[in-house]
Design goal:
Distance between the termini: 10 Å
Number of helices: 9
Shape: elongated
Helix content: over 70%
Radius of gyration: 19 Å
Number of strands: 0
Structural class: mainly alpha
Length: about 160
């Protein structure tokens, strides 16, 4: 399985507010342009690049929304636990209405959990590829974006875990 799938899953919670955050950053940079040491031309180029990054990240969020909606509740829960920072596994599963026997299968053993998680992440990878997000597209479109690059480094460091 490719690490880019893990990277975009780790980035997903940040993507929820990326449009608003980037818009605010772009607006502030433009408003404070009179104090910038950059030339007007370079500042305009920078703002255009930031707008393009914002659009790319919003497209990535929409793509992930579509893919995640196609997963079952249990599969989404597995992804949420591992990649979205959900800490209290039993409470999360109970709140999502996961039946006790499914809950036992999910958290019954660590080995079982990681095996199921690997399958779900591989499934998400296949779904992303069908939607057009392959490793090549990821490298060309997203790998150079600062926040994605930082998440990629984090995932590479913990790669042995899943």
């Amino acid at each position: 399985m490719e690490n880019y799938v893990k990277v975009v899953l780790c980035a997903y919670p940040l993507l929820r507010t990326v449009g608003q955050d980037y818009a605010e950053h772009i607006r502030n940079k433009a408003l404070l342009s009179y104090v910038s040491a950059q030339s007007t031309e370079r500042l305009a180029e920078y703002l255009a690049e930031e707008i393009l990054r914002k659009q790319k990240l919003e497209q990535l969020k929409e793509l992930l929304d579509r893919v995640l909606m196609k997963l079952s509740e249990v599969e989404r829960t597995l992804i949420e636990i591992r990649y979205f920072g959900k800490k209290r596994v039993k409470e999360l599963l109970r709140s999502k209405g996961v039946k006790s026997e499914e809950r036992a299968a999910l958290i019954g053993s660590e080995r079982s959990y990681f095996r199921q998680l690997r399958r779900v992440v591989a499934k998400v990878g296949g779904m992303l590829a069908k939607e057009g997000l392959t490793k090549e597209v990821y490298m060309a479109e997203y790998a150079d974006i600062d926040i994605i690059r930082k998440i990629h480094i984090f995932v590479e460091k913990r790669d042995g875990e899943v």
